[in-house]
From TrEMBL:
This is Multicopper oxidase domain-containing protein. Residues 1-20 have a biased composition (Basic and acidic residues). Residues 103-213, 430-541 form the Plastocyanin-like domain. Gene3D superfamilies: Cupredoxins - blue copper proteins, Integrin alpha, N-terminal. Keywords: Metal-binding, Oxidoreductase, Signal. It comes from the Bacteria. One of its GO terms (molecular function) is oxidoreductase activity. PANTHER family: MULTI-COPPER OXIDASE, MULTICOPPER OXIDASE LPR1. The lineage of its organism: Bacteria, Pseudomonadati, Planctomycetota, Planctomycetia, Isosphaerales.
Amino acid sequence: MAIREHRDVTVRYGRSEGHRPSSRPGRVRSARGAAPSCEALETRQNLSAFAEPVMLSSAGGVLDVTLRAHRSSQLIEVANPADLTAPGVPTLVDGFDTYAWTLTQGTSDNGQVNGDGYNGPTLRVNPGDLLRIRVANDLGDQPTNLHTHGLIISPAGNTDNVLLSIPPGESSLQEYRIPLDQEPGINWYHPHRHEFAADQVYRGLAGFLVVGAANNDIDQVSGLPQRLMMVQAQSIEADSATGRPTLAPLSVVMSPTFQVTINGRYMPEIAMQAETELWYGLQLDVRDLMRTFIPPAGQPSSEWDFNGNAVDPDKPANLETFYVAQDGSAFPKTVAKQRVALAPGKRVSEVISAPPAGEERLLVAAVVQPTALEVTRYQAIARMTGFGAGGDPQDWVNRTLTSPSMQYEDLSKEKVDVHRTFTFSTDPVTGQFVIDGKAWPGSPIAQPRVGQVEEWTIVNTDPYPHPIHLHMQHFQAQDTAGRPGYVTPPHLFDQDVWYMDPNSISVFRIKFEATLGNSVFHCHNFFHEDAGMMAHLNVIPAEPILIAAEGPSGGRAAVYAMGDDDALPSTPTRILTPFGRRYRGGMTTATGDTNFDGVPDAIFASGRGGRVVVLDGASNFATVLRDFHPFGRKFRHRLNVAAGDLNGDGRADVIVTGAGGTAPVVRAYSGATGNLLAEFLAFDEQFRGGVSLAAADVDGSGRNRIVTGRADGQPEVRVWGWDLFVPNNEPARSASLLGPPRLVADFLAGPPGARGGIAVATTTFAGAAGGFARIATVGLRGTPQVDVWMLDPAGHGQGHAASTPAPASHSHALPAEHATAESAAQKLTSFAPYGRRRLGTGPSLASVNTTTGSLLAVAPRGQRNADVRVFQAVGATTDAVLSASLRPPTRRGGFSLGGS
């Protein structure tokens, strides 16, 4: 890998409560004369002392930092081939990807405001804080993004959105509001751009993310000295062209130059500061499992066994350590282990007993070869020296743990709402790693509902392990003792990475938190994830809804709340009159969470008078959130409406356009402020046939796109959107007023000679087919046929800008600019909701989320005594079948539909 630049490396030495530095080491020069500064917090004067990365902490409730991902050379410690148990040799090594960081708001424990190092800075925030990170991609030839592994937070917008793809030379401003009920503990951050994650994490793009007290506020460990340990693997070889030490690509097969370090230190010396310490381990060998253990003092390396005497009682026992927390979640009691099994990305908080003063012990890593399933080498990774009489492990056996922040609840006693089974395997033909036989993004879509308990059965048919990770959720492995082929877990407590043994079955339960939005679950062997072993995890509201609003001569709207069985009731749960009881002008409707409370709100646009009303779903639609005229009070045409978060703040923005008789201007109003957010022409200015609207992430970009259809004339669909990235050398742009959108897709949803226009909706109909949100279309004349389309998720080019009118309520006469579409559309399925019957008026479409995809609802817009027909996909196919026929009491002139 080419050298881009070199920066001084700033490292902070290991700290313990009540122990402060007594001296500082001198500056140590590398082979090229670089001078990294080190601050010693232990009374040692050499680089083999235990060290931790710099810690950046929030101040005034905010931590604001820039992380610039770039190519660099770094000073790390390299094993001495003549003595693999000796301290490492400080060496300047090329080929790293690291975060050059700049602190804008917050504090640094070394007093600096910028730095760069093999380990990213540790970020420390408290519940309720705002964590703001500008992620700048200066890698040159790779996209990237950022995942906050362990935060229970929404993946929507500019938060923990791993579908984003930040191009080289551009930046994304990410904002994470740490939930007030986020459990304190150890998490981490790293890139998660599919196909690039393994290499970027291996080369150094990772760091700890600590929320509140790293010790989870566990009373029994309060006051113990603490150490953060990032266990990483490197293969360092001489560059064939320059002869310089270079970080070689990490192959699946073990290389002869493979080594394991802790925080970039080879064989650091840990001078324990008390009889017992609390260690936090994070394993970052991106391929597979590593087991760490502490063998008996003086035991020859030839006798090391990570199992100790757990398998063979005649062997000597390893030192027992005790889990008190895992993956950021406190345990209700200690769990004893003779070895720590660290799957990639797993965090373990363990109590370590010090040897007595004068005795030395080794911390050893057993490196497991993923393909051969055997320990290919044991490597001592740290040297421990004792304190006083040493610690007594018996003090921690089956010890009850308490914490005011503990959130553990035993899910084995809960009612299970949904059962799912997923099979992790390798495609024998393509060699791809797949889930249910399909590689990402064609893998299945799981859509859990907030608050429901699901039981997942995970089948691993491969002869090698798969560590499983769910984003933004913790889960509990269930006791399956006595069931052949099933794995019996070592404990039943919360975790977010589960190690799947080869050819085995595991069962775990999840109670889904309110992390609404599109996310993923996957194998946390990064090689496997990058090669396709990932699937969709889209958490949906606890109570999805369908709204049937009366057509041209009506004024009422019926709300149907979905039951626990993924079915809509035959009678509405609420009748609304958003424009007053006397209003009879008809309306269109949509749903969206405009105030970011996890409950869909109802949005209505009047059929006359140009008025929009937004009703709060959390108040059972009793509270008016917005009431405004998006095109001014003189506007007299009908409106169409949609909703979707366009500026990345997590709130659905209200999108409006004329339904006919006016120029095809689309306006978006901020869900947060109600102010005008964007405005553009969807079609040429002379077009007066009306625009149908929808919004969703239909291209897998991590951004909601506006879908526009001609409501008259050719069945043309145009998809518009913003990526919200800015060049690295420019300041962040305001999210309160967006510039011109770019055209993402432009296709005909019918024969070129067809006339009469189309209605559009977005949906995850037929979720078993995988992929991202689909576009549903239906012709507005003749015999209705519903077509469901999928866009090519790979088409993420730069595109061309649309025309943007001045932000004024009267500005309609604006020139349109034709743009080149980026994503091709493919038809997923079609069906005729009314058979061969012709409708006198065009139908309306809406989608309602279920736990496996979406229902599609169809109803005539202007026909009396009409019914609402609801369709679902048949099993794992894309075939549509009628699942319900609703006859709302509000049946005055047909319906406009909206759903969540």
